[in-house]
C-alpha cells in the first residue's frame, strides 16, 4: 500500500497560496452540465411543489442558480424536514437521489411534514465532478458564520429563512474511490501536510452527530437501505474511514465543530448518508434508490416516534 504521495500542484509541506489555487482551478474541466442534467428535473416538479430560487453562485449567476423544492401549502403546525444533496458536487447520487425522492415519494409525506429539498448545493462542483468550489474551498467544511464558501452561505440563508426549526435533516453524500486517488491527496497538498493513504469502505454507511447521535434513528436508516444495497463493514480496527463504528454501518462526527452541512440546523434527527457508487455490486440507479431508502427510513422512524 502506498502511504505517501506527492501531489502535482504545490511544494510538499507548504500550504497553497493564490498561485497554487489558480493553478488547481485552471486544470479543472467541465464534464457535465447542471443546466441540462439537473435544472430540468427540478423545473418538472413545479406542478407538485413550489420551486424557489434561494440564490446563485457568483462564478456565473445565470449558469448556477440554486433551487429549493418546497411543499405547497406550508403549514406552521407541521414539523419541517430538510433534504440536502450535492454539497459535494461530484457525489452524483446525492443530487439525483434527492430529486428522485421528490419525484416519487415526497408527496406521501407532505400530509405530515413541510419538506424542503436543496438537491444540488454545489452546481459548479457537479459540473467539474469535484469536491471543492473554484476557490479550492470545501463547502462541506464551511457551514459557519462568515463562511468563505458561497455554496454554504446560500444554504445557511435558506435555512434561516424557514418559518420554523428543522426537525429532520438528511444530507446525502457518497464516499468514492476518487476520495483517495484525488481529493484527499489534493487536501493534503493544499494544507501543506503529508498524505497518508486511507481505506475506502465497500458499502453504505451513515454519519451521525457526536453531540446528538440518535442511534435508533440511524439504525432505522441502515435497516431501510439494507433492502437496496449492502452496508459497509467495519475494518480490522472496528472503524470506517478512521472513525469508530458505533453500530452496524454507523459512525459519528461533531457536525457543527467541523463545519459540516449536517450541522447547518439544530435538528433533533439528523444524518449524513454515504453511498459507495464504485462498488461492482451496484448500479447508478441503485445508488439513487439507496439515497431514497435512507430518507424513507428516516421519515418513517420519525413518524412512528411522533404518532
TrEMBL record:
Residues 30-307 form the Peptidase M14 domain. Keywords: Hydrolase, Metal-binding, Zinc. Signal peptide: none annotated. Its cofactor is Zn(2+). It comes from the Bacteria. InterPro entries: AstE_AspA_cat (IPR055438), Peptidase_M14 (IPR000834). Belongs to the peptidase M14 family. This is M14 family metallocarboxypeptidase. It comes from Vibrio gallaecicus.
